[in-house]
Amino acid sequence: MSAPYYEDDSVTLHHGDCLDVLRELPDASVDAVVTDPPYALEFMGKTWDGWSTPAAFQEWCGLWAAECLRVLKPGGHMLAFGGSRTWHRLASAVEDAGFEIRDSIAWLYGSGFPKSLDVSKAIDKAAGAEREVIGINEDYLRRKPNGMKTPGASAYSYSVNDLPTNADITAPATDAAHQWQGWGTTLKPAFEPIVLGRKPLDGTVAANVLAHGTGALNIDGCRVGTELITQHGRGESSNASMSGRNYAEPAGRSWEGRWPANVVLDDTQAAELDRQAPDAGAQRPVRGVEPSAPTDSIYGSRNRVQGPFHGDKGGASRFFPTFRYEAKAPTSERPRVGEVAHPTVKPLDLMRWLVRLVTPPGGVVLEPFAGSGTTAEACVLEGFRCIAIEREADYLPLIVSRLSKPLQLGLELGA
């Protein structure tokens, strides 16, 4: 293997195509894969995010997923981000490569901005019609305050053949445009899926964990919130799932924080959820009954027990991991060297939570698509080693810059 581009006690960074570098890594040599690969959405016209067909993208995903499977220890997990329009191709490729699909995590955020075609404007533009400007989209101006054209006190018109991308609100000019006013082509982006796969076990989970240190998720290390919760026993099958507790929780045990969910919120979504459900699980009995031990019938009746008092209160967001989200990561998390910055940067706290979820203490994490180095920094802060690979030479100094700065140990995880 060629010499690493950068190496320290925690991170080894390789420059090259991930397929070439992965083929040189030993079998069963890493504990987890946490990665943010391209989504095949032709993001900002970047060549690294474009494929000729969806099938070609899936085939490519299968190639690197198969190499990740080989270098993972038995029972090792892979977390891979995907785009909402293409992640089914990613998930299929991961499964076809030999992984067991264990779950999918939905990262929900409220700051996405729709990139939709205004059908009404497109119709007028094709007809060469002029649209009258009747107002200003103040929300757009707040989002993009620089370089906006400000109209005079009275309305004015301009040719739609030269429509600027700005905050002008215009009226339809043709009958057809009136008919299709309010129609677009995309929804507001508000989530990204994360595929959770696991390499097949070597025997049972218990045997695999003892032999390889992999095969399980770090539940207690990723619990939500800091409140002390006690599971009151009502017999072997007594658990209160509707309150945010879980059937896996043993009766009579106390623990700090709630079981991690497969939905992760940003603070905007958490606030909206709390607005709609401000006292979910407050100190009152659950209405109705909750399931206890199942009968032998798959779809038949279940034995039931009356719900308990839950002994806690607060907004519904406390049941979910919550991280601060910004449409653009803050300067401290978005390295820049000269004029180069990476266009897609995940929140550092989110990546810390993910690497902790699937990596045993002191384990090695593989990131085949290092980008700006967020996963690598997350590994350093969580006490893991990281093998990172990046193909684009422009981004390598960003990663080194990120790893060379003083790292902050705080983790923002909402309840």
- Please compute the radius of gyration using only Cα atoms: 25 Å
Overall mean confidence score, pLDDT: 77
- Binned strand content: 15-25%
Q: What's the architecture of the largest domain, going by CATH?
A: 3-Layer(aba) Sandwich
Keywords: Methyltransferase, S-adenosyl-L-methionine, Transferase
Family: Belongs to the N(4)/N(6)-methyltransferase family.
GO molecular function, one term: site-specific DNA-methyltransferase (adenine-specific) activity
InterPro entries: DNA_methylase_N4/N6 (IPR002941), DNA_methylase_N6_adenine_CS (IPR002052), N4/N6-MTase_EcoPI_Mod-like (IPR002295), SAM-dependent_MTases_sf (IPR029063)
Quickly describe the structure:
The chain is an alpha/beta fold and 415 residues long. Helices cover 24% and strands 23% of the residues.
Q: Could you explain how this protein is built, in words?
A:
- The chain is of the alpha/beta class and 415 residues long.
- It folds into 3 domains: 6-112 and 189-216 and 325-404, Rossmann fold (3-Layer(aba) Sandwich); 119-179, no CATH class; 224-258 and 281-314, no CATH class.
- It is 24% helix and 23% strand.
- The protein contains 11 helices and 19 strands.
- It has helices at residues 18-22, 54-71, 87-96, 119-127, 138-143, 175-179, 205-212, 267-276, 348-358, 374-382, 396-404, and strands spanning 6-7, 11-15, 30-35, 72-81, 100-108, 130-136, 157-159, 168-171, 191-198, 224-230, 254-258, 263-266, 289-294, 302-306, 322-323, 336-337, 340-341, 364-367, 385-390.
- The strands form 5 sheets. Strands 1-2-19-18-3-4-9-5-12-15 form a 10-stranded mixed β-sheet, sandwiched between helices.
- A hairpin with a 3-residue loop joins strand 1 and strand 2 (11-15).
- Helix 2 crosses helix 3 (87-96) and helix 9 crosses helix 10.
- The two termini are 45 Å apart.
